[in-house]
Amino acid sequence: MVFQGEVLSVGKLLDAARTTPEPTPTPTPSVGVRHTAAQNAEACRKLLVDGETLDACWRFGILQTLDDYTSVLRRGGPDLAAGVFDDQPVPIGSAEVDAAFAALAEYLAERDGWTTPLWALDASRHTSAWYPAVPAIFRAEADQESPAAFRRRGILITSRSLSRA
Question: Which residues are CB-contacts of 143 (< 8 A; sequence separation ≥ 6)?
């Protein structure tokens, strides 16, 4: 079979993507929450025990939790997605990562309109001036842009730090 359609330029494809409204997904809450912040914190603890860096915990714990949350949010809405944070992540021995899990929970709760879990408000979940996966060249930017929930806990990130593909 020979292709008989029109080959569009990259510019036309981008224009089409910008002007086409995204479909409104139908929530399917029956799937439920599959992965939680508590589970991802345990995975971070194991990474640290195995000699991995805090930045690895940021990527494979915090950003993975953000991805898990976003998946549940798309399937079932904010009330179901809040369940990703129902179980308290047990402190893993890293003040930075423990603070980051709390910051992420508060940030998403404020953004999406659900109640921040009490464990995330624990004052002990704090560190001082951690720049997770932020190169030195972007630290001044992180000082300015870090969301309040992260900044209050001593975590300084750029506006792109929570961007996902």
Answer: 156
